[in-house]
Each structure stands twice: as C-alpha cells, then as structure tokens.
Amino acid sequence: MLKAEILLAALANGLLTGAVYALIALGLTLVYGVLHIINFAHGATLTAAMFAVYVAHQTFGIDPYLAIPLLAPLFFGLGYSLQRWVIGPASHGDDGNILLVTLGLSIVIENALLAVFRSDTRSIEVPYGFEVVELGPLILSLPKVIAFAGAFAVAGLLWLVIARSDIGKAIRAVAKEKTGAALCGIPVGHVYAVTFGIGAACLAVAACLLMPTFLVNPRIGNAFVLVAFTIVVLGGMGSIGGALAGGLIIGVVESLSGLYLGESLGQIGIFLIFLVVLLFRPTGLFGARA
Amino acid sequence: MLEVEALTAGYGGIPVLRDVSLTIDSGEIVAVLGANGVGKTTLNRALSGLIRPDGGAIRFEGTRIERLAPPEIVRMGLIHVPEGRKIFPTMSVRENLELGGYARARTRRAANLDRVFALFPRLGERRRQLAGTLSGGEQQMLAIGRGLMAEPRLLILDEPSLGLSPRLVEDLFALVVRIAAEGLAIMLVEQNVVQSLEIAGRAYVLENGRVALAGPAAALRADPALERAYLGM
Predict the structure, then answer these.
(1) Contact across the interface for A182 and B70, Cβ inside 8 Å
(2) Structural domain span for residue A158
(3) Which of A178, A184, A286 is the best mutation test for B, with the most CBs of B within 10 A?
(4) Any domain includes A289
(5) CATH assignment at residue A229
(6) Of residues B82, B89, B90, nearest to A183 (C-beta)
(7) B interface residues, A as partner, C-beta within 8 Å
(8) Strand bridging mode B185-190 / B202-207
(9) For residue A201, is it within any domain?
(10) How confident is the model at residue A290 (pLDDT cuts 50, 70, 90)?
C-alpha cells in the first residue's frame, strides 16, 4: 500500500493538471453548445497557440504569463475571423459542413506548423520553471499552481460573461433557439464567430499556462484535445460547469492511474471512464437528459 | 407602411408563394388567412428576412427590405412573433424579454419591460421563472411581449392561437386589439378565420400560395367564396 503522502501528492497534481484540461475543454464545450458541432480544429489551434507562446519567448523574450494579455485577444480575433469569414461561408449554412471544414482547417494548420517548425519537440526555459510551493506535506510545482489559478480565473470570467452580459445572453439565446434569436435582431453569424473567438482565446490562455512546464511539437494539441473531448462528454456536452468538474476528475484519474499502473498507462483510466460514462450516463454528469 | 409586390418565395428554388401582393397601413389590423400549407409561414419568413425571396419586392416604410438580414429588418421596426413561439426555454422570462430589445429600443428597455408587465401581469409574476416551464398560453404571451420590447411599428403575429383553448384565444385577441390601439400595425396570420375576422379591419385569404380573396373583414365574413377558398373546394 502506498503512503498517504504520495497518494495526496498524486491527487493534488491531478487537480492541477485537470484545471488546464478543463480550460481546453471549456472552448470545445462552448462551441459545441452554441454551434452544435465538434470543432476539430481545436487541437491544431492549441498547437498554434503554444507555438505562438514559444516564438514570443524565444524571439521577443516575452514571459509566457505576460503573453496572456497579448495572445488572448490575438487568438480571439483569429477565432472570430476564421468562423466569420472562412468556416461560416464555406459551410453554406449547413451545420454538418462546419464539422468537415474545421477538420480540413486542422490539417492545414498542423501542416503549416510542420513546414515552419519541423517536427522537433521544443520547450522554453523560464527561471521559475522548477520552483515549488510547499503546502503542508505537499510540494507543488509553482507553474502548475499558477496554471490552476489561471484556469479557474478564466472559467469564472467566462461564466460571468455568459450569465450576465448582453453578448452572453445572446450566445445562450442562439444556442437554444437560433430562429427566435434572429427574430429578436440578434446577428447569429456574429454570435457564432464570438463563440469561436472565445474558444480560441481560452486556448491561448491555456497555452500560456502550459508552456512553462510542457513541450510543444506540431501534433501536441491533439493529445490534449482527445482528453478535452472526454471531459466534454463526461461533464455533459455544452455545460461550462460540467467541463470544469470533468477536467478536475479526469486530471485526478490520470494522475492516480499513472501512480498505480505506471506513467505510460496513465491515460488508460481516462478512456475507461469515457466508456463507463457512455454506457451508463450518455448525456454526461451535468448534461440535460436526452 | 408595408407593400408586398408580386412576391415569389420558397425553398431550394421551388416556389411556395407565387405572385403575392398585399399592403398594410399604419394602425391597421390585417388578417392573413389560409389553411395549413398555403404559404403563410413562408410569407412571414420572407418578410422578416429569414429567407430570400426569389422574386418581387417588399417595401417597409418606403425602403426595399427583401435583401436585408433579420437584424436590419428588426432595427427598422418590423417584428415577427413566429409560429411555435421560439422563446428561449432555458432562460428566465425577464431575460427573454430583455433579448427582445437587443437590436432596437435598447435604451428604453426598463420602461418597455414595465409596459409589457403591465400588459401581461402573469409575466411580471413569473419574471424569474424559466420560460420553458410556462404554460402554452403564457409562452405565447411571452413571445408577443418579447416582440413588443422592440417597439414594433409593424407586428407580425404568426398563428398566435395555435394550441390555445378557445377561452385563451378570446383573451389573446382582445389583447391584440388593445395593443393595436397604441398605434402600431398588426398583421395577424391565422387559421382561425372566424375570430380573426372579428378583430381585423381587412383580410387576405391565401390559397395554394396565391392571394385568393382580399377585402374588408366584414365583407369577407359574408362571402360564400371564403368557405370555398378556405376549405379548398
């Protein structure tokens, strides 16, 4: 039997990683909730954001955390423009086509990154990369603690925007009743694009929080998005609270199964959970019953 | 106020409406009648910009609107309360109403909210309740209230009596008369011929996507051709 401290440390580390997973899942679930499609370009967008953090650091010497106020608006604009002027028009008003267009887009982005950066795995070095925070018996990595707090701050902010602001109400209206929203004078195309932009901005923040401890290569985003997709299904498609809870659960499950089964089998637990959820509660923990 | 001229509209190039012309003046209640499937909803969708007509012209207060998007048409004051209500079920009554003033009359939202609550006290009592939990009649009131939040100049009511009890339909139509008395024009699109003709000044009867009959409501009520057109005999 393992010592309680080790178990506790694994739990804490799982929660810390899970928060960033949740942040990545947030954008995915939001886009699903409003446009009712899975954005297949989500992983490639995350990769692009991670490379953006890499370039900002290596070329311009910008700290990853200080890059947040630069990259979040940049990626919001990028996501907005992609949906408004590429994905939207290319899908010819058929939601099913959007899915295929995002799939095509992900291939384009990935290969563009591959052409520019080659398939090398890169990382950045920051002075605080190995600093730790001591919390009772726990010794936690400082960048991971910052990532945890950052992810929760973004989730809280997003919840506030969706619940209270005019654009948030418009987003919820379009999500449930597109025609009714259009007849209220809500510009549906603009709302779609804003939603996509918010999703991309979440990824930019996630990339900034990840880079001090993770590495980047042109395919890294897919690994994260596969996990994020599991979180979205676990939490309930389209549910923000579900994405948060799902992210933390998945982070803990990964960490614990890594502890018991060995690091290389850590992700097995995630997909076991995925199967169990699909079998017994296909609408997810927080999803509406079908 | 509204002039529809030789309008042809449909889906995927197959016309549902053919060569429909009609006019509505300010302050009028005009009924557009017809059985299921004669093109009433297609007409409304074309007027509010949800579909692009294949031919003809739509003028609202002198401006051509047949190529405009729904938000632009809403901003001009042509408000369409759709068939099936299309309210936002997971949002509160209050939020539903606020969204009615999203594109127009935004600065007067608070005053308009009070006005709608005065007109529909039930909505005021239930302002915090989720719209999806309202009864059918209350949901219809909410859909109309949401339309009024935009201070319409022309209000299109698409099948407002659908699914309501005869008693509720009577209350609803009395309210429509009250709303019209405030000076806006109302286009009442209905299958409910008898009661619609009681409150409308004029009416158009659609049959197979064309205007089959038109005239003052009083004259149409007495016209045996109405029954023929309506029943398709």
Answers:
(1) yes
(2) 4-280
(3) A184
(4) no
(5) 1.10.3470
(6) B82
(7) 48-50, 69-71, 74-75, 79-82, 85-91, 95, 98-100, 102-104, 146, 150
(8) unpaired
(9) yes
(10) very low
Confirm or reject contact between A179 and chain B (CB < 8 A). Answer: yes
As given in the structure block, the two tokens for residue A283 are 């609408």
How far apart CA B119 and CA B112 sit, in angstroms, is 10
Measured distance CA(B142)–CA(B137) in Å, rounded: 9
Evaluate whether residue A287 is within a structural domain. no
Instruction: Give me the residues paired with residue A216 across strands.
Output: A122
Q: Which two tokens stand for residue B106?
A: 């935004």
Q: Please give the single-letter amino acid code of residue A64.
A: P
Interface of A with B in 132-171 (CB under 8 A): 166, 169-170
Q: Torsion angle of alpha carbons A11, A17, A23, A28, nearest 10°?
A: -90
Task: Report the pLDDT value the prediction gives residue A1, as an integer from 0 to 100.
Answer: 55
Per the prediction, chain A carries an average pLDDT of: 91
What does R_g of chain B's alpha carbons equal in angstroms?
17
Sign of the torsion angle spanned by Cα atoms A52, A53, A56, A59 = negative
Q: What ipTM goes with this model? A: 0.92
Pick the residue of A166, A171, A178, A183 with the most B CBs within 10 A to test the interface with B by mutation: A183
Task: Tell me the mean pLDDT in the region B113-127.
Answer: 95
Task: Indicate whether B141 pLDDT > 90.
Answer: yes
Total of domains in chain A? 1
Q: How far is CA A172 from CA A169, A188, A239, B48, B129, in A?
A: 5, 11, 11, 22, 16
**Is A94 part of the contact surface with chain B (CB cutoff 8 Å)?**
no
Contact list in B for residue A88 (CB cut-off 8 A) is none
**Residue A120 domain-assigned?**
yes
Q: Tell me which residue has tokens 């997810």.
A: A284
d(CA A212, CA A143) in angstroms, rounded, equals 6
Q: Name the nearest CA neighbour of B222 among B195, B192, B197.
A: B197
Per-residue pLDDT tens over the stretch B161-200:
988 899 999 999 999 999 999 889 999 999 888 899 999 9
| Burial label, A157 (beta-carbon count in 10 A; 0-12, 13-18, 19+) | exposed
Beta bridge partners of residue B22, listed in sequence order = B4
Instruction: Count other C-beta atoms under 10 Å from residue B2's C-beta.
Output: 22
* Distance, CA of B117 to CA of B55 (rounded, Å): 41
* Architecture of the domain delimited by B1-77+155-160+187-233: 3-Layer(aba) Sandwich (3.40)
DSSP A288: P
Q: Which amino acid is at B217?
A: A
